[in-house]
Amino acid sequence: MALDNLIDSVSLYVPRHIAFHGAIFPFVVLYFLWSYICFSLNDIGDIYFIGIFAVAIAQVLCSLCCYWSVSFRCLLSCRRVTSPKTASLVKVIPIPNNGFTELVVLKRFKDQDLQTVTWFRYHEIKYLWNDDKKCFHSLQFPISNTIEQYINCKGYTSDEQLAKSIRLYGLNELYIQLPKFNDLFIEKATAPFFVFQVFCITLWCFDKYWYYSIFTLAMLVLFEFTLVKQQLRNMDEIRKMGNNSIDLFVYRNKKWQLILSDDLTPGDIVSITRGHDDQTVPCDLLLLRGSCIVDESLLTGESIPQMKEPIENISDYSRNLDFETDKKLHILFSGTRVVQHTSPIKSTSSIRASPDNGCIAFVLRTGFNTSQGNLLQTILFGVKHVTANNLETLAFILFLLIFAIAAATYLWIKGTEDPNRSRYKLFLECSLILTSVIPPELPVELSLAVNSSILSLSKVGIYCTEAFRIPFAGKVEICCFDKTGTLTKDDLIVEGIAGINNEMMPMVLAPEHTIQVLASCHSLVQLDDTLVGDPIEKASLDAINWLLCKNDLIVSKNSKMPPLKIMSRFYFSSSLKRMSVLASYKCPKTQNKVVYIASVKGAPEVLKSMLKSIPSNYDCTYQELAGRGARVLALARKEMKFDPDDVKNLKRETLECDLDFVGFVVVSCPLKPDSKNVIKELQESSHMVTMITGDNPLTACYVANELNFTRSQSSIILTLTEVSNMWYWVNDRNKVQFPLIENIKKLVESYDLCLTGDSLAYLNKNHKDVLKKILPHVCVFARVAPKEKEFIIIMLKALGYCTLMCGDGTNDVGALKHAHVGIAILARSFEKLKPKKSSLSKIRKSGENVSDQMKRLMKEMDEESVTVVKSGDASIAAPFTSKYSSVACVCHVIKQGRCTLVTTLQMFKILALNAIIAAYSQSVLYVKGIKFSDSQATLQGLLLAVSFLFISRSNPLKILSKQRPLPNIFNIYTILTVMFQFIIHFFSLVFLVQKAGTYVELKSENTTTFTETFNETITNSSLILNDSLSTVTSSPEQDIVEEFTPNIVNSAVFIISMALQISTFSVNYRGRPFMENLSENKPLLYSTIIQILVILCLSMGTIDVLNVQFEIIQFPYEFRLVLLSVLVLDCFGSFAVDRICLWLFGEGKLKKIPI
Question: Which spans are transmembrane here (predicted)?
Answer without folding.
Answer: 18-37, 49-70, 185-204, 210-228, 394-413, 972-993, 1083-1101, 1121-1145
